[in-house]
Each structure stands twice: as structure tokens, then as C-alpha cells.
Amino acid sequence: MTCIAFQIVPDIALTERLFDELGAKTGDSSGITRDSYGMGEQFAHDLVRMEAEKIGMECHTDAACNLYMVMRGRGDGPAIMIGSHLDSVPSGGNFDGAAGVLAGLAVASGFHRAGQRPPVDLVVTAIRAEESTWFGASYIGSRAAFGTLTDEELDGVCRSDTGIPLGAAIEQAGGDPNALRRGDRALDPARVALFVETHIEQGPVLIDERLPVGLVTGIRGSFRHRHAACFGEYAHSGATPRKTRRDAVRATAELVSILDELWARLETEGHDLSVTFGQVNTVAEEAAFSKVAGRVDFALDIRSECDTTLDMMRAELRRVVAQIELRTGTNFDLGDETGSDPARMNKAILAQMEQLADALAIPARRMASGAGHDAAVFARQGIPTAMLFIRNRNGSHNPDESMDIDDFAQAARLLCALCESWSGPPEPD
Ligand SMILES: [Zn+2]
User: Fold this and answer.
1) What residue spans define the domains of the chain?
2) Pairing of β 79-85 and β 338-340
3) What are phi and psi of 7, to 5 degrees?
4) Can you give the pLDDT at residue 4?
5) Alpha-helical runs (H) found in 93-150
6) Rounded Cα distance, 246 and 232, in Å
7) Residues linked to residue 333 through DSSP beta bridges, in sequence order
8) Separation CA 8–CA 419 (nearest Å)
9) DSSP 3-state assignment of 310?
10) In 184-331, where does DSSP find H-type helix?
11) H/E stretch holding 379
12) Distance of CA 213 to the CA centre of its chain
């Protein structure tokens, strides 16, 4: 696909002004704070709504205060939705979330300035409460839009700083928790042809590979053992021979190293995977420098965009643990397993975006998303879903998030081309 002339040019000047205004009004010396269902998030919603109305978009909110900014299309087929969230973690950065909403406005304004309408309705969406730091629940806004927020969450989940229950916070922001309790759906998956979320990359891959844009293949699912332990026997470090020791540190270290080797091997074979021991501790009151450790507590987080890889790792974990137990005389208790299912992005749209990036000479690569996003909720509803990553320095959820507006512009060009060349919903995967 080469030599295609696209007419719709994203309105980058608009988005630069909006990023600046968001940064100025929701930031302080320690970073950006746009609290979910609080003043920071509300400011952002009011700001983008005002700008959308200026370019003739019809705006409405749902029972969870998600904001839909609609540019009417030429045809009446299912809509293209472009969106993300506008809340941030406390003292976070200016781009996590906001980039995805502003990218949608850049496209809509591009159509407006060209005096054209999109092929079908273009719905730029600002989703509420994506950051689980505030209410301790994931994807509140997007799940609410599909009527899947539970009564337990509305009543029992309270904001971490103020203690206000989620339902009351939604009501205070102008929403209707009773409609959510009834399971009313604001979005009908059959009326959404595509949901695209643009987001800053939260790792260093695009920086390292000098690429402005990533094309997301899937959002990793996970299985986690947050409270795992290895039990051995405390013993004197000088007096206990190697072969009679039941050393919990050595056994845990073996597990860490064997799983790391397994990760390296599976990665070479083409599996998407990450293996992390985020916490490994001996018991402070019982351990000492001159004692063989009798207990190690640890947390294990295994992620992949592929179900079968997760299943394989689950089986391997059991097998490796049993071997180490036998060899070291220790016992592992992995505790409860928690986790989430992977969410696949639509293959046809992914291929289309790859072709468009090529045609537009935008250097890009395929990559998995290691972090969760609202896009996962849309994908699980059976909606063809896509994600674009934008190169970003210094990770996310911190004030040093750093995205070049030129990289943002490349992603927005790709979105414009996708909308302009839209020929209807893709084949389901
Ligand atoms: Zn985000």
C-alpha cells in the first residue's frame, strides 16, 4: 500500500494547547493529579468537552459519567470509537491516558478543518476512573459502560484518600449509580465497529529501538501468587553441613533462576512472557546473618498475551517447585492464585495499521502491552479493538513521563488514515 494520498491531517496545534492547559491546571510541583471522580479528572472532562463542542461534536455522558463526543459520519454503520482515560495516579504525568483522548480530538478536528465528515460516526471517548490507585478496582468507567460494575463495588469500594464509596462519588460527579445497579448498558457492542486506544508506552522498548509508534498485538494476562512462601528449617550457619540443610533462601533462589532460564528459552522460541519476583523476603524477626533461613516469603507475577503460554508456565511452575522441594528438603506454599485473561487485539485491524504505517512512512513495530488498559474491556466484549503505543521516556505514573509531540503526531496521522480509509467493520478474529 503505497502512494495513497490522505486528506485528513490531525490537529496537533489543538492538542498541544490542551496538553499545556491540562498540565498547568492539574499539576503542581510534585506532578499531575487528576483524581478519579474528583476535581482533577472533572477539569479534564470539562476541558475536552468544551473543545469538542467548538468543532460541532455532540457530547453526552452515561450513568458513570463517561464522556462521548460524537462527530456525525456520512454513513450509519457501527461507529469508530477512539478514546482512553483522563484520570491520573497521584503525582503522575501529563500523558498517561490523556494522549489517547486528545489523539481522538486531533482526528475529529482534522475532519472538521478539512470540511469533511468521517465515513461513520466518530466517537471520541473519555473513560472515567481507569487508574485503580483511587478506588482499588480496575477499569471502573469502561466496565460501567457495559453494565458490568457490581453492587459490591459501588457500595464497598471506597476512595483511598477520602473514603467516599464509589457509588456516592459517581453520584457526586453527576452520574446515576442506580442505573449502574440495574446493569444498564451505555454501549451496545454491536454498534461499535472499532475501539482504538492510543497510549504512551510504559516501558523502554520504543526508546531503545528508536521507533515513534508501537502497534499492540495484545494486552497481557497474568497469573500471580502474591503471598507465596518457601519453608525450610532454621539452622546454625557454621555448624550445619550443606547436605543436611533445608535452606529456604537457596530453594527460592533456585526457583528464581530456573524460571528465568525458562523465560529466556521460551522467549527465543517466540513466546510473549514476563516473569517477576517483585518481593522476596526472609522473616525479619527470625532471620539472622548467621542462620540458615527457615522461611522466605515471595510474590510471583507471570504475564503473557497468550493463554497457552500462561497455562504452560502454570504447569512448569508446579513441576519445578516439586523438583526443588525434593532436592532441597523444603516445602513451597504458593498460596492463592489471582490474575486476568489476556485480551487480543483485532488481527485484521492490526494488519491494516501496519500497512498504513508503511504507506505513511511511520516507523513502527508490533509489541505486546505489559500493562492493563480499558481496551481490554472493549476486546472482551467482542468489539474489534486496537491499541497504538507512543514512544515515551521514563515510564509512566510519574511526573517525568516524556512524550515528544512529534511522536504523538505520527500516531494521530495513523489514526486519521485509519478513519479516512475505513470500509466497515473487520472480520471477527
Ligand atoms: Zn493509562
Assistant:
1) 12-219+342-420, 221-340
2) unpaired
3) -100, -25
4) 65
5) 98-113, 132-135, 140-145
6) 5
7) 229
8) 9
9) helix
10) 205-208, 248-268, 307-328
11) helix 374-380
12) 16
3-state SS, residue 6: coil
Question: What are the 10-residue block averages of pLDDT along the chain, 429 residues in total?
Answer: 77 98 95 97 98 98 98 96 97 97 98 98 98 92 97 96 97 97 96 98 96 97 95 96 97 98 97 96 96 98 95 98 98 94 95 97 96 95 97 93 97 98 85
> Which has the closest alpha carbon to 202: 216, 190, 192?
216
The CA–CA distances, whole Å, from 46 to 53, 112, 321 equal: 11, 20, 53
Q: How far apart are CA 248 and CA 282, in angstroms?
A: 9
Other Cβ atoms closer than 10 A to 296: 25
Cell (9 digits) for 203: 516501558
Q: Which of 147, 212, 217, 148 is nearest to 184 (CA)?
A: 147
Rounded to the nearest whole angstrom, what is the distance from the C-alpha of residue 397 to the centroid of ligand 1? 8
Residue type, 423: S
Cα(42) to ligand 1 centroid in Å equals: 16
The class that CATH gives domain 221-340 is alpha beta
CA 130–ligand 1 middle distance (angstroms): 7
Rounded Cα–Cα distance for residues 345 and 219 (Å): 8
Say how far apart CA 103 and CA 412 lie, in whole Å: 6
CA of 386 to the centre of ligand 1 (A): 15
**C-alpha of residue 210 to centroid of ligand 1, in Å:** 22
Per the listing, cell 459517581 goes with 170
pLDDT in tens, 254-266: 999 999 999 999 9
And the C-alpha cell for 307?
A: 493463554
What cell does 76 get? 450509519
**What pLDDT score does 428 carry?**
73
The CATH superfamily assigned to 12-219+342-420 is Zn peptidases (3.40.630.10)
Task: Name residues whose C-beta falls within 8 Å of residue 205's C-beta, 6 or more positions apart in sequence.
Answer: 214, 367
DSSP 332-348: EE----EEE--EEPPHH
Among residues 397, 376, 341, the alpha carbon closest in space to that of 143 is found at 376
State the distance from the centre of ligand 1 to the C-alpha of 308, rounded, in angstroms.
27
What's the pTM?
0.89
